[in-house]
Design a protein that fits this description.
Elements (H helix, E strand, L loop, with lengths): L1 H12 L6 E4 L3 H9 L5 H16 L5 H21 L6 H9 L8 H14 L6 H10 L5 H22 L7 E7 L6 E7 L2 E7 L6 H11 L4 H15 L7 E3 L3 H17 L4 H12 L8 H10 L6 H10 L5 H12 L3 H12 L8 H14 L3 H7 L6 H5 L1
Parallel strand pairs: 2-4
Antiparallel strand pairs: 1-5, 3-4
Helix pairs in contact: 1-2, 1-3, 1-4, 3-4, 4-5, 6-13, 8-9, 9-11, 11-17, 12-13, 14-15, 14-16, 15-16
């Protein structure tokens, strides 16, 4: 049954670029699927239905059965979409990731704007002031690698001392271009990751610590390593050797990765700013410690703008220009950054995935409640969104 799950995920990956986020399972299974011609999506949907029924009726331990069934429902949804079944955007998100996207009242954004207006120095229109301030926080390209290394080394030691890391784990960082995302973790198995940081747009110092924590310590790399050791090597749960877009494991992964800096450094924005400044300022990188902290606190809630834009595009039929304008207005982004955000929301692989960020962070934050031991459950156990919400 687990072999069928791995095969199904790999076969779907032949239809969707990036669908298989990571695979370090049995090589013979991958070699066999690689040698096959692509299978018809309708057949893959039928395979997913049979697999789901078998999982639900299996004698697997209850929590493992629950996790695997949720994963297969996500794969079934992807296969049905590929087969041309009419599935609306909100239904696609719910069936794939286990949460239903909801539009957030623009009053929430307006309140954040009011907080920012009272916080930011200077005068004039809020968006202009915020954009001008952000662009003063650009990391010089020649200093980016050193900044990433310094942050990662510290975050690694904090993660190791709080939850433990296997001795053999390792992350390589690289700078890339021409991608719709800001950063990406390629987990290679054997406790190793390659983390790519996109430099299509200038990287900002006020977000760099979060980005490094998200992709490495205690985020994606840490979760993969802990589960490779605990679930794959010790418990032989080979379903954890594949990581698949369009499944609930992604929402948990993005939520915990977004939460990581709060847990490993501090839930207090001022303390997180001091932490980042300690690494960036010695390198001569602009970092406005006091304003970074106040902007972080004041802009709480603006992360939901992306969710509204996705619903505008995919449920209400808005065009790209309207979506970019909405992002500019409510997320207070310059046009180039608003366009980059909308590019992610219109990418066939990532359009529904965006919900993992919007809904994943508040769900994981509520579940953890500031307790490092509960965060450890996220990076160690097989959990699903409904279990976190219970």
């Amino acid at each position: 049954m687990i072999e069928r799950y791995l095969e199904l995920g790999l076969r779907l990956g032949k239809h969707v670029d990036g669908f298989v986020d990571a695979y370090f399972g049995p090589g013979d299974i991958k070699a066999r699927v690689d040698a096959e011609p692509p299978q018809a999506p309708a057949k893959l949907a039928a395979d997913a239905r049979r697999l789901l029924a078998d999982v639900e009726q299996s004698d697997l331990e209850a929590n493992r059965r629950h996790f695997l069934a949720a994963q297969v429902r996500g794969l079934l949804t992807s296969a049905q979409k590929l087969a041309g079944d009419p599935i609306g955007y909100a239904d696609e998100v719910e069936r794939s990731y286990g949460v239903r996207p909801q539009k957030v009242a623009e009053d929430v954004f307006a309140e954040a704007h009011a907080r920012l207006d009272a916080t930011l120095p200077g005068s004039g229109p809020l968006a202009e002031r915020l954009i001008a301030w952000r662009e003063t926080q650009v990391v010089p390209p020649e200093k980016l690698q050193a900044a990433v290394t310094s942050l990662a080394d510290d975050l690694r030691e904090r993660t190791r001392s709080t939850w433990g890391l296997p001795d053999e784990e390792h992350v390589d960082f690289e700078l890339v271009t021409n991608q719709p995302w800001s950063g990406f973790n390629y987990f290679l198995g054997d406790l190793r990751s390659r983390v790519a940081i996109n430099t299509d747009l200038p990287v900002l110092s006020n977000t760099l610590a979060h980005l490094v924590a998200h992709e490495s310590y205690p985020g994606h790399h840490t979760e993969h390593c802990r589960k490779e050791v605990g679930l794959v090597r010790r418990r032989k749960q080979l379903e954890e050797t594949i990581f698949l877009v369009g499944t609930p494991q992604c929402l948990i992964a993005e939520g915990l990765a977004d939460l990581g800096l709060e847990v490993v450094v501090s839930p207090d924005a001022d303390e997180r700013a001091v932490f980042a400044a300690g690494h960036l300022k010695p390198l001569g990188i602009p970092y406005d410690t006091e304003v970074v902290a106040t902007v972080s606190k004041a802009s709480d809630g603006l992360g939901y703008v992306r969710g509204n834009v996705a619903l505008l595009l995919h449920e209400e039929g808005a065009d790209i220009d309207d979506a970019v304008a909405y992002m500019e207005r409510w997320a207070l982004l310059p046009r180039n950054r608003a366009q980059k955000s909308v590019e992610f929301l219109t990418d066939p692989t990532w359009r529904a995935y965006m919900t993992c960020y919007v809904e994943g962070l508040p769900l994981c934050r509520s579940f953890v409640g500031g307790d490092p031991a509960r965060f450890e459950r996220l990076i160690t156990e097989q959990l699903t969104p409904d279990q976190l919400a219970a």
